[in-house]
User: Fold these one by one.
Assistant:
Number 1:
Amino acid sequence: MYILGISCFYHDSGACLIKDGQLVAAALEERFSRKKHDFSFPHAAIAFCLEEAGIDISAVDHVAFYEKPVLKFDRILSQHLEMFPRSFLPFFLALPSWFNEKLRLRHILRKKIGYRKNVLYIPHHLSHAASAFYVSPFEEAAVLTLDGAGEWQTSTLGIGRGQQLQQLAEINFPHSLGLLYSAVTAYLGFKVNNDEYKVMGLAGYGKPRYLEKLRKVIDVKDDGSFALNLEYFSFHYGMRMFSKKFEEEFGPARKPETEISQDHQDMAASMQVLLEEIIFKICRHLYEITKVDKLCFAGGVALNSLLNGKLFKHTPFKEIYIQPEAGDGGGCLGAAFYAYHAVFDQPRSFVMEHAYWGPQYTRAEMKQFLDDSGIKYKEYADENSLLAGVAKLIKDSFVIGWLQGRMEWGPRALGARSILSNPTNPKMQEILNVKVKHREPFRPFAPAVTAEKANEYFQGDEVVPMPADFMLMVYPVRPDHRDKIPAVTHVDGTGRLQTVRRKQNPRYYDMIKAFGELSGYPILINTSFNIRGEPIVCTPRDAYRCMMGTGIDYLLMDKFLIARADNPNDMWDSEQYAHD
């Protein structure tokens, strides 16, 4: 049985394909279209999934969509009627997309990909829950979903047992932790649904001195249930997230691209602390009602790695699973697996142990691209010389673009489409931010460390292992190592680490280990292979163009090493890789 999962029309669109309960392929549309956070119908992602399976659309038995459009439109309409006339403009502007796309999925499937069979519509938060539980290693787990909003739900508590998922409690729109965090994101001058991670990075520079004031905007009970004070917000009727009352309380909002003050840093820190306090209460209550010490966590809020790294310490859960694409793009995964296990009552047999589910390119395809383009390159003769040569380049503080194997599923670069560099160089954070990534200087870089050495350099919980394979946990760097790996130690002494296991990605693991033999630290800076405003690269061509428009020194594709200095960049239109 083939089931095609689809998510689109709101945030990040994506597609996945499962065959008899096993994941075949999964990818976000943005990687093919080259449009950051592309939310259009995922035509290219679907085509990739079918090609990876070696089938055409006629072989697909069912399509599973990650929410119920009619129910969501009911919420939009109810919201408009309740808040009319203030809600008229956003409602009027949204109508064309509803009638042209969002309510016409069956028509679009027929027109764009020729699919005429059954379509299953899975509720949004059920898709989130399924995306974590059904691919987790747990037979039984408590399940938490938190995001901006689905159809009506914004938060759910549940339990998964075997093939079944049961929702136990919910909170509905407009009361939402995701929308609260996004409102503060907008207040700080960043883009909603795009820059929330910047608030996390900024929080490390501040003190939570606005925490008591922020408590006025949300009423929180002992069990973690909450209600927003809607006087402070306008997202439920207007074109922006927060109201005039919010600015009266906290001062004028920061204008985009202007200077970031200490007040802004303190606001970010306050929002992060408040979010953590609430979710710790939610998790403790969820444990009390389920008595299960394993947690599956999904929804956009589950991408908050600062929060995730503290869940073990502040909640009763002993094991936690968050799949790599926990946000809306990953809804397609949950929809497909929910259909297979809960709707069609098929047994579970798949665990997502790695994130490499996207396209890959053969050595012959890479060589043809390089030769046809007239690109100068060196080909390593064997694995040992490759590891030794590239490790020496990184030790000498050259910046390496790294394209190897199948592309990652989700928003994190995990060693397939990464930029690698030297964490022991105190200037490397500035070099990467200014010359390569073209982004704000307060943004931290992530350490990738061999899994067996992680606890030597990072302080995880003393009882449970450090589950950071998908780079979704922030942990403190041990104090005696902070000045030795300054480029991956954030201002607050933490790092958003990725633990790397050889069985998941042998060459990446061996590269980190080879660098460790030279430097004494089996750790690399790992940041996404893109620049500000661009999606992570997908193809060899994407990777080469990105290198030629940035300060990346070398590109390693399979065993081919390309030096930027050896190749002219005038033919590659590098201007598009300047500042966005």
Number 2:
Amino acid sequence: MVRAIVSAVNKLRPQLRLPIGTLPLAWRILAVNLFAVAMMAAAFFYLDSFRTRLVDSRIVQLEQDMGFLQTALATTRPDGQLQLLQEFARAHEARIRVYGSSGPPLVDSNTLGEPAYQLRDPNAQPWNRKAARAMDRGIDWIVGAPTPSPFAEPVPDRAEAWPEIREALSRERKVANRYRMAPDLTPVFSVAHPARISIDGAERPVVLHLTTNARDITRTVRAERQRLGIVLAIVLLASVLLSLFLARTIVQPLRRLADAATRVRLGRAREVVVPRLPDRGDEIGLLARALSDMTGALRGRIDAGEHLAADIAHELKNPLASLRSALEGLERIEDPALRAQLFAIAHDDVLRLDRLISDIAEASRVDAELSRARFRPIDIGQMITPVLEARRARAKPGDAAIAFARPRVGAARIMGEPSRLVRVIENLLDNALSFSPPGGVVRIGATHAGGEVILRVEDDGPGVPEDQREMIFRRFHSVRPDGEAFGKHSGLGLAIARAIVEAHDGTIRAVDREDSAVGACFEVRLPAAADAE
């Protein structure tokens, strides 16, 4: 029935099912740390925008330089224009060609001197350059960078083969540019600018065409990527090592505790040593010690249950044996006097069994009921008063009197469960009255001192020997006064009282009377309520 209720409740709750929920804790720690590394890897997107800004600024710079060149050529004497073109090409590491509206170049800086640059064959380069280009392609694919068109010298080399020249000619005195990629994945910039220069002694309209292989941009971007890659590698290594460290300090102790808990669940509590991890002051150390204490308490409960079962069997066996003998005797004996005596013995045995069973049931319910009880403020003085009035109402002539030193209202307040604390008072009164001589006095009082409420119950009986003061709180242990009929008490009253007091975080013990008179004194100490005066 309980399982069905739990299943129904679970069906009402929304279930959040994520794939990560099935991963071991060590993998989750690693995933969290690697997520931080992945966030850092987003810097590669910044490098792509950094490269874009470099490309844009270089194109703007080349367009401005071509404008300066066009102005310089317009103010230079015709016989110095070719030298100006050659010096400009060498200064910008560029190839400058002069085209008409169509046809091959009229002037080429590569024929005036040494070529300013030379495109490199990627197949003839070492493996590290090939690896760098492969990395460039991979990163560009990850960040989604646009791929420029490949650069190749037109064959044959004519003005109409260059789209930027056609664009420049179609827009009067407007510069046009193109950004292409060399075979070794380095940028190639082309700029076309209309101009008028003197060629063969005649000034004519032409298009100045500049091409340059900007390897420095690739070197700059690769250097930044290399530095970022080194940082990411260090962070990745640190994240993995940190994950392993956390797995060692968190996952392994948790696995040890889980294994110990599983063995306890399988019924091997006595064989299991739950690690207490005394060197750890963190939450896992607290958990380990809590599990160890819980296991110890479980062992104590198991042992107590076994001992209780053995004690119950022993205590029930005696009255059952006596009852059996009496019943068997009734079958054989015809003498009315003997039969009446056997009937009396059987009656006493039945009463004794009934008393034992009631007290055993009471003792077995104490822990379970107190674990569910909700404590509330209680005034000890007001709680004891009705108990004493009921006792006095059913008192017989010759019974011991009860004297109550009533505390003032609110002076002896505790947090507890009233019905159980009343049982403690009743058990202590029963014990004191049973030992008190006729005409004696049982004294009960409560005081508040040092953050505790101290309750004392004293009698005028023979007192409790010091060597018996701890044993009397054991189950079925009873030291009765001389002359008392056997079986009048089960020996569970003080044991039940101790269980109730300890469940209230208190203590109970047998001590000497404060006036040093003969008699027993039971002292109960309970934590005072916070609002007690």
Number 3:
Amino acid sequence: MSQTEVLNNSAQYIKGVGPARFKILNRLGIHTVRDLLYYLPRRYEDRRNFTPIGRLEVGNYATVKGEIIKLNLWRSKRGLSIFKTAVGDESGALEAIWFNQPFMKRYFKVGQEIILYAKVEKHRQVQMNSPEYEFVTGKDSSLHMGRIVPIYPLTTNINQRYLRTIISRAVESFCSYIPDALPYVLRKKLELLPLTLALRSIHFPQDVTARASAYKRLVFDEFFLFQLLLALKKSHRAKQAQGIVHNMGGKLVENFQKALPFKLTPSQEKVIKEIENDMRASGPMNRLLQGDVGSGKTIVAAYSLVLSVQSGFQAAVMAPTEILAEQHYLTLSKLLLPLNINVGLLIGSMALKTKQETLKDLKSGVLDIIIGTHALLEENIQLKRLGLVVVDEQHKFGVIQRSLLRKKGEIPDYLVMTATPIPRTLAMTIYGDLDISTIKELPKGRLPISTFGVKNEAIKDVYKFIREEVASGRQVYIVYPLINKSQTLKLKAASEMYNKLKQEQFLSLRLGLLHGQMASGEKEKIMRSFKQHKIDILVSTTVIEVGIDIPNASVMVVEHAERFGLSQLHQLRGRIGRGPHPSYCILVSDPKTEKAKLRIEAMLATSDGFRLAEQDLDIRGPGRFFGPAQHGAPELKIGNVIRDMELMELARGEAFSLVRSDPNLRAPEHALIRQKLRERFGSENIGLLSV
């Protein structure tokens, strides 16, 4: 049996597992021997020395070992089940409390030795709320005591002791079957542990240094394979047939520049130069254009569209929503129609006759630029000569969707736009195969937005402020997290509050309602009314997060702001401050969790989208960057792109260097790397490696 076959064997046949427990392990994502070996601890407890109970410090997390002195189970006046146990050692005693888990009393016995881990709190006496626990038995071996002990993520009906035992068996029996793909020369150069030793040490480290060395090796492996995939993609594109060489010296671009009613910012000018260099080169452009809300990305994109038309090509702009597509259509038509550039719109809700005429003009070449949603991807849509693809908010589309649009031309240039600022570390991960341009400063004249945080009970003061702003001629957004009231979540909803506000708070004002379940035509009608100032207050969900530009809107109120992500809150705030009036973002919230508090604090502290993006990544963790739509994109399971940024950069440098020296990884010492790439990223990426 080969190494791969052994590692792919079911974990069910490891001693102590069996069919019933195997089903429980499946809930943890453990199916094979390999899964067990790579099921890594989430933290460690140093059980060489426990903290004496008498020396515990309130506010700190601690691990204690003691004896159960007393047990108590009762029901509170509110019907809450409370299980409490007193645990003591030679230095003192503490209370351990669990809520709504009455069954726990069956497992605890007075006189039993127990290990507890949690944050230390103090009310009437020192206590731990819902601590992790593990009983100490006479059978305790060196695996569970007297060492640095791994603590794993659990699920119901499984405990640390059991999981630790079977992982130990897997490590002892099968660790040596894991092939080490990194060549010895590279391991020696970077001072990386052999893989077998790294896996042993990550589970059962001898000391803190051994654990750190093991972590470094495993994270490097993960980052290295990922960056190899990006390097191969970039290399693969560079070897494709020659792209379009666009004409830089025409009157059309010159006339476009002259017609602009404002001066470009230094960042915009710099990015335009980068795009020009790409579009005049023989290879296809693959560039990401990122910039904060209102930084002027659309003008830069318009410049690239004009370049394409000047060279005799058509261009396509794809947006994730009809509202955003319509916004781009209106903005670009205003800019480009005076230059005799024909701009068309293609969205799903269009009348059939209009759509057929648009398709005819697109195929014949009458239309120079087409703007649309995923409707652009339909098979019957043909362009005469596609030279440039612009994708707005790329992360809203899947990999396959984006590639379908590019295939409507031979090898068109490709420009991605995003208004969600991306930290450098994350950009290296998500868009590592693209060249990146950044617009940092906002255009002159943009007034800063004042941001305030208020509690739910102060909402009447907020309503009073709204009435004052509307009386001054301004317009207001009020955003809610839900469309309709939920039976399980005690949150205000847009539909319910629209009626309530209309009848109770703003009787004399004009209100509109906008949400994602409305028909496209109805949404367009509401937005047009708001833009024409026929609506004073727009009650909405996050459907307004992108694509709406109302210079007269000066107030953004977000209710239950703690329910929104930091990126969403920043995008919502960016809907205001687009005119000559002072603007105010009011976050109404009652954050209960630490992460929610951090998000609100971050919004109040800065309006810099790039700083907020870093903080958002720090608060949420890297998680699944690509989302379910990003088919074929991996999840980083071990490394953290913030904490391990230096390792990511190191891995990137080595990966790109390797692909430059051995573009198809054909050298004998790279055979295992090829194999690992295929195992990790699947058949859809095999084509990157020429056989």
Number 4:
Amino acid sequence: MLKKILLGLFLLLCTGLVWFYSIGQGWLGSDWQAAPVTGGPRLQHSSVSEQSDNIFAEQQMRTERYDTPQVLFGDLHSHTNYSIDAYVFNTKAVKGGGIVTPADACDFARYCSALDFWSVNDHAEGLTPRAWADTLKSIRECNHAAGNPMNPDVVSFVGWEWSNGERDDAPSHYGHKNVIFRAWEEGQTPTRPIAAAPSYVLGKVPSVLLGLFSLTDGVQAASDLGRFIQESNQTPVCPEGVPANELPADCREVALTPRDLYRKLDEWGFDSMVIPHGLAWGTTNPSTADFRDQMDQYERRYENLLEIYSGHGSSEVFEDFRRFDPSSASDDICPDSTANFTPCCQRAGVLAQASCDDAESPECVQKVEQARADFVKKSGQKGRTLFPQATLDDWAGCGQLQNTFQPASMYVPRMSAQYSLALGFDEDGSPKRARFGLVGSSDGHQGRPGSSYKETDRLLYTDSKNLGRESGLTDFYRPDKESGSFFYTGGLVAAHTQGRNRDAIWDALSNRNVYATSGDRMLVWFDLLNGPDGTVPMGSEVMLSDTPRFRVRALGAFEQQPGCPDYAVAALGAHRVQTLCGGECYWPGGDRRKVISRIEIVRIRPQVRPNESIAPLIEDPWLVKECAADGSGCVMEFEDAEYGAGARNALYYARIIQEPEPLIGGDPFGCEYDAQGVCVKRNYCIGESARPDDNCLSVAAPRAWTSPIFLEYY
């Protein structure tokens, strides 16, 4: 009898494994593709009375001139379910967002976030020829629906993300870069994307595990996912030694280094740009990464812009800290803490000391030193296993950059924007500089570009995952993953253009006449007033020996009203406004703008010697102006009398700070403070402590970052 029971259980187990395997293999699935985009443009769906108040009306209905100066807002980093990680994240088990296609992203950009331009950038490592063709089809439809090509309601660009993932080898980890093309018409874009690896890491998940998604998402949805992953895995790698424009369309083209990528883009010959992002993210980059090691691969003709802020946080500031001491001959040296960073090996010593009866005893001192050394030997977060009973709050935010605006998790300081801009030499000591313009974008994996217009739906507008008890994934949640609390609604890129068409936008991006925002649509101008030929804008390079004079002007973003305008409801319908937009849209009400509270100027004087220390070259802030709290904006004029005397190159950018307000992840640590303003308890927005309806709001000050003005002394 027992043998029959065991045999029955064995057969049942085998049947279950075969069932889930068949689902994960996609045998029961089908190829999903984007539905047609919703007809447009926006004002086609507006009433006459609404058009008179619509913020787009003046620009949209202009018919005689198309070269009017204006500030346009966009998102150049958006993923759909054609990114395999986005496909997995949007399952009900993980997030519950559902399938999102490039057509959905188009509709969101047009009707929900009301962007002026955007780009789709799915991961090239997982894209298949069919998925790429479907993406191009949707982008062409989106632009066709935009109205007059010289004055469209939204410009949709197409590209992909090149994601180098050699995380454990810092010198060969070239990070993540978005490739974007100026054109989208047939014959003016590559027939396939160019990947950084033959396959995407999430494409290697065992089929049985993929099949388990059917328990929450249903057999059809889970098998569709399995089918897409199998389709991606079975895409053959293109042969080597053949020019990119001569390769067959049905293979995966691979460029292992940025230099290989640029060579292949040259072979295609299409106008394109490459935008690095996520440089300071310790979640995807080696903790020892240093942009100096990548300078030999930097090509300014492609890499003219840098994504300084996204839904994964800010990569702006350089803090001179290390997680271990590379100058020591011993591997067990724990570096000192700084004002804004505590190495977790130092915190391990604090936890060890707390277990002592006498903290001053020689035995306790030895215990503390041993705990620090043991933590360093464990390497990274694995050292936390030395104290299995310690909570995240016990670790007190160690390993994270603190006391700064929405930082990237596990911050890598020598990949930050400030550090990169301060470098003057590559790793071999040869002169080389990166001159980046600064942009923001969302990097959202929900197919919802520009989702930063309201802080109302954490799961829909950010990359936060639902990993609490109700998701069924509690057992997979690891308590050292506070990085899940470092997700934000994302940023935007603002472009000073001469018109609304794609060429006007592309020219502004190419000239670096752009700035980044943390999501709000502030209006910012930053000019050098006394260039050799007069006033020049942000992003410019100027040969100058005189004392430079500058001006910054800034206006706060419009206040938002709840809900969505009539044109969105008329175009999408009430149900889709709820499911796609989350029931909320970009919808400014009246003329009231938020207050600009201050303007900060950062001065960086790049290296003039290969071994020159970086930290003293970055003056942040160098100048500060407090602004009137009347909502009228702020103007700051200043000069640098030290420039000529210093006789060296310099760059300047402005950081504009808006009045504080509740933001999703405004404080990723979720701090509770004592009377002295010290964080005494942390409440990370992760796991069971983060309910799906909890937006984890904390007060923080939105901001904008201008592209630098680069002065070359002569």
